Amino acid sequence: MATKKAVNKPDRLPVQQTAKTYSFFDDVYAVVRKIPKGRVTSYGAIAAFLGTKLSARMVGWAMNAEHGTKPKVPAQRVVNRNGMLSGRHHFETPSAMEELLKKDGVIVKNDMIVDFKKIFWDPAIELAL
């Protein structure tokens, strides 16, 4: 009878758990909680930081599933790679994401982050060990 090998995860992941209890969504939430007010990141940047570069869509699913998660996850700070508020329809109202970003000090015009490259927060750089 074959035994299961433990999955080795990189040490830089925010959540340290065993393979049996590992949750990609929890890792995503841990990264998003570190995004400072006034900054935004992308689904792809989070996926790349977590070692799953092609899983940007899964990061989006995590953001959509975060409602009611404790501690709170500032999902409004995650946008698509172009700075577009692509997840706005998953908030209570279509304008809620923009309103939360404005409270954070982020300027939004026509569902796009103004000066996106300037305020972009890259977890690979900001959370580098």
Walk me through this protein's architecture:
The protein is mostly helical and 129 residues long. The chain has one domain: Arc Repressor Mutant, subunit A (Orthogonal Bundle), CATH 1.10.10.10. The protein has helices at 24-32, 43-49, 56-64, 96-103, 116-119, 123-126, and strands spanning 41-42, 78-79, 108-109, 112-113. The strands form 2 sheets. The protein has a two-stranded parallel sheet. A hairpin with a 2-residue loop joins β3 (108-109) and β4 (112-113). α1 packs across α3 (56-64). The longest helix has 9 residues, at 24-32. The chain is globular. The protein starts with 23 loop residues before the first helix and ends with a helix.
Quick structural gist:
This protein has 129 residues and is mainly alpha-helical. It is 32% helix and 6% strand.
What are the defining features of this structure?
Arc Repressor Mutant, subunit A; 32% helix; two-stranded antiparallel sheet; 129 residues; mainly alpha; disordered N terminus; 6% strand
